[in-house]
Amino acid sequence: MRFVDVAAESANPLIPHTAELVVGAIAFTLLFLVLRSKVVPMFEKAFAARTEAIQGGMERAEKAQLEAQNALVQYNDQLSKAREEAQTLREEARVQGVAIIDELRTKAQEEATRITASAHASIEAERQQAITSLRNEVGSLAIQLASKIVGEALDDQARQSRIVDRFLDDLEKSK
Q1: CA-to-CA distance for 34 and 26, rounded, in angstroms?
Q2: pTM to 2 decimals?
Q3: Range of the domain at 94
């Protein structure tokens, strides 16, 4: 019978011995328990830390991107305000320039009017002075001429003035 058992045992090499099965099962169970209690928690902790780091990095990146977008919006707002302020300042400067030009024109016109009026007054004064001087000269010449024509002296001042005035009036009427 033994021959049959040996023959039966040697007949199927794929079926292990019962002792090997028991030792293998115990070793597998011990290895499984050690891995489950010691190694798996370390792997889970590492995976959790890595997941957390990735999540934190993504959150930080999203936060940084949001801050960058906010900064860009704020920068664009400030730039827009600066452009508006620059435009306002240019417009104010243009208006002030026009006002200054108008004011200078007005002052120049007033100065020209004043100078013209002063020149007219000066000319009129000189004209009156020339007329007076001419009257005196013409009067004096007329009296001398009349004295020579009449043959008598015309020394009376009142008479001289009347004669000169009459002569000049006659001259003005004849014009």
Answers
A1: 12
A2: 0.40
A3: 17-129
In-domain check, residue 87: yes
One-letter amino acid for residue 52 of the chain: E
SS (H, E, C) 9-72: HHHCCCCCCHHHHHHHHHHHHHHHHHHHHHHHHHHHHHHHHHHHHHHHHHHHHHHHHHHHHHHH
How many structural domains does the chain have? 1
- Kindly report, residue by residue over 112-166, the tens digit of the pLDDT: 999 999 999 999 999 888 888 887 787 777 777 777 676 556 666 776 677 777 8
Query: Cα–Cα distances in Å, from 83 out to 10, 41, 79, 86?
Result: 98, 61, 6, 5
Length of the chain as a residue count: 175
Distance CA 55, CA 60 (A): 8
Task: Render pLDDT for 82-97 as a digit per residue (tens, 0 to 9).
Answer: 999 999 999 999 999 9
Q: Is residue 107 part of a domain?
A: yes
